[in-house]
Specification:
With 623 residues, this protein is of the alpha+beta class. It has 19 helices and twelve strands. β6 and β7 form a beta hairpin.
Length: 623
């Protein structure tokens, strides 16, 4: 039929007005599903029954193969040679039959956590469980290697490891070569005893140990180790083969010091524990490993001096670290939030440091260190309020110079917390407290500013915080440069535009510098947060509100504890003081450890530590 003008218009209007399905595929939308979505009631039991039936069939086939071997040995007059091996196979079959008990089999099939199951004597069953746990063959990271140990008769084996976490050279030289090339002669042992023989005679690795369940196998494989399964043995062998890429030991980026060690922690747990041992070379230094996390098992090292640290403190730290459940722990700061006491004031209850020399120093005092795998920061517990004002080089400097710096940090903390609030309280409620000339100078400087003083202070403080945060986030040397240039330009422009007065710019600059002098970042952050709270109190109630806020902070400090140790010790409560609280004494005056830690050995050094000063020089003795 020939198309006319009217028919074309009709088709066009039809396309415009009538809905037509799109030619392109619809966009992907992640729809929300009910948590109760599961296979149908009839399908799920059928799958479980089928899994039980398949396990029984595999057992029957293995039993049939063993019976055929036995018949062949009897007919071929080889019973004396193969009797020991066949007896071991029947023992393994008996153990597998116990695993296939109807109640045990039903529990193993229906349980959601396959990692709770023990290692089977059947290599086939172990392979199927490994494939289910690591989602094979979809997952390409796990390597499953079948091999035959060249004994008489040959022994089937299987090893698994994660590519990328394991050193392939170690696997080849320390596992595959000894098992496939160097194993000769008859088997001296069978069954579980074969595990001991292979571990003691065939595997030259420095760390080899047997494991009996798949939870331990998953933890070790996910950490970079290799697991060897032997046919007929109800255990597997774990061989140390870690070899992933990691950052080397570098210089401290945050806790920089003029003197002292220039090494910083890395992300590798064993590198970090080794750095501490290079600083504190003592056989009493104990390192305990506690795995944390339910889905991603991350090792957490707890280090302490056994002859010094209080046993109750060590037990409490281990109880807290092993006593919480979460899927994944990626940093020591995340771990800290699970194990610290909850309190209204956001004060740190542990010392976070990237320097192994600081950790070693605190361990020698009787404290406990917590190091998380994958984190370049260590936690030291317990701590007091004064610990956060000590720096790494305090004892590397002359006592007079070190005490001057410590007092400067304490003064900077008071300035950072109270200076803006004190200015607001005086200018709003207590102008008579200022000298007349200073009051007139402040009033003259604010003559052209249309905003109240509290608005100026808060605006400049928030601007300073924005510049500080931007300087941290901008990579490289541009961060500090942009921070300095931005602060200068912003302050000068604000004064020129008569938005803020010059005295506010000076006040905010001094406050910001004072908060940066605190060595611990989290304590400096608490000072910055407290500054805003005291600002609001001083705005509404003057010096009374400021004094009430400071008193509230002091009461909170005195009521806090860090892992059982009072936060304000040795001042509140009063205990035996040492010359290392606010100020420090000379190196020869550090006779005792902190009394608040209740250490096993409270003596650090003898009363007279400089014994050479009590003896005459060698030349004078000869005269």
């Amino acid at each position: 039929m020939e198309e006319t003008l009217f028919s074309k218009i009709g088709v066009f209007l039809n396309r415009m007005l009538v809905f037509q399905p799109p030619k392109l595929p619809s966009r992907f939308v992640l729809e929300e599903k009910s948590r109760n979505d599961s296979p149908s009631q009839a399908e799920d039991p059928l799958k479980k029954a089928l899994a039980e039936l398949e396990a029984l069939i595999r057992y029957g086939r293995r039993l049939q193969a063993t019976l055929e071997k036995t018949r062949a040995a009897l007919q071929g007059n080889r019973w004396d040679d193969e009797r020991k091996v066949l007896r071991a196979e029947y023992t393994a079959l008996e153990k597998q039959r116990q695993e296939l008990n109807p109640l045990v089999l039903a529990y193993d099939v229906q349980t959601d956590n396959a990692g709770e199951r023990p290692v089977s004597t059947s290599l086939t069953e172990n392979r199927r469980l490994v494939e289910a746990l690591y989602r094979l063959p979809v997952n390409k990271d796990l390597i499953v290697r079948d091999l035959t140990i060249g004994t008489a008769p040959p022994l089937k084996a299987m090893l698994i490891y994660l590519e990328g976490l394991t050193d392939g050279k170690i696997v080849g030289l320390m596992i595959l070569q000894p098992l496939m090339l160097l194993s000769q002669g008859k088997r001296k042992a069978t069954g579980d005893a074969l595990i001991r023989q292979v571990m003691e005679e065939l595997l030259p690795g420095n760390q080899v140990q047997p494991v009996g369940n798949f939870q331990d196998i998953q933890d070790r494989v996910n950490s970079g180790d290799t697991v060897v399964f032997l046919d007929g043995a109800a255990e597997a062998l774990v061989v140390e083969t870690k070899g992933w890429e990691h950052r080397g030991v570098g210089r401290p980026a945050i806790e920089q010091s003029i003197r002292g060690s220039q090494a910083a922690f890395a992300e590798n747990l064993r590198v970090n524990t080794g750095l501490i041992r290079t600083m504190l070379r003592s056989s009493d230094l104990v390192t305990e490993m506690v795995p944390v996390g339910t889905r991603s098992r991350v090792n957490c090292a707890i280090m302490y001096l056994e002859s010094v640290a209080n046993a109750d403190l060590v037990a409490e730290v281990k109880r807290r670290v092993s006593g919480f459940s979460t899927d994944y722990v990626d940093d020591s700061g995340f771990l800290e939030q699970f194990i610290e006491d909850k309190f209204i004031l956001p004060l740190p209850q542990s010392l976070s440091t990237e320097r192994p020399d600081r950790v070693a120093s605190h361990l020698s005092e009787g404290r406990v260190a917590i190091i998380t795998e994958g984190s370049p920061f260590a936690l030291v517990v317990p701590v007091t309020f004064f610990t956060f004002f000590h720096s790494a080089e305090d004892f590397s400097l002359n006592p007079i110079a070190a005490n001057f710096l410590r007092l400067l940090r304490v003064l900077g903390t008071f300035i950072s917390i109270m200076l803006p609030a004190l200015y607001i309280a005086i200018t709003y409620f207590h102008q008579e407290a200022l000298p007349t000339e200073l009051a007139l100078a402040i009033a003259g400087a604010r003559e052209d500013v249309p905003f109240p003083a509290i608005f100026e202070v808060i605006m400049m403080e928030l601007s300073f915080e924005l510049i500080r945060e931007a300087g941290v986030r901008i990579p490289g040397v541009l961060g500090s440069t942009i921070g300095i240039v931005g602060a200068i330009i912003l302050g000068q422009a604000a004064v020129s535009a008569h938005i803020v007065s010059p005295i506010i710019v000076i006040l905010v600059a001094i406050t910001g510098l004072a908060s940066s002098i605190i060595p611990e970042y989290r304590m400096a952050l608490f000072a910055r947060l407290s500054r805003f709270a005291l600002l609001l109190l001083a705005t509404f109630t003057g010096l009374v509100g400021l004094a009430s806020g400071v008193l509230t902070i002091v009461v909170g400090l005195c009521s806090m504890k860090s892992y059982g140790v009072p936060y304000m010790a040795p001042i509140g409560p009063k205990v035996v003081p040492t010359l290392d609280v606010v100020v420090r004494g000379s190196a020869e005056r550090r006779e005792r450890r902190p009394d608040s830690l209740n250490t096993k050995d409270p003596t650090r050094q003898p009363y007279v530590s400089r014994e050479w000063a009590r003896k005459l020089p060698t030349g004078e003795e000869e005269k």
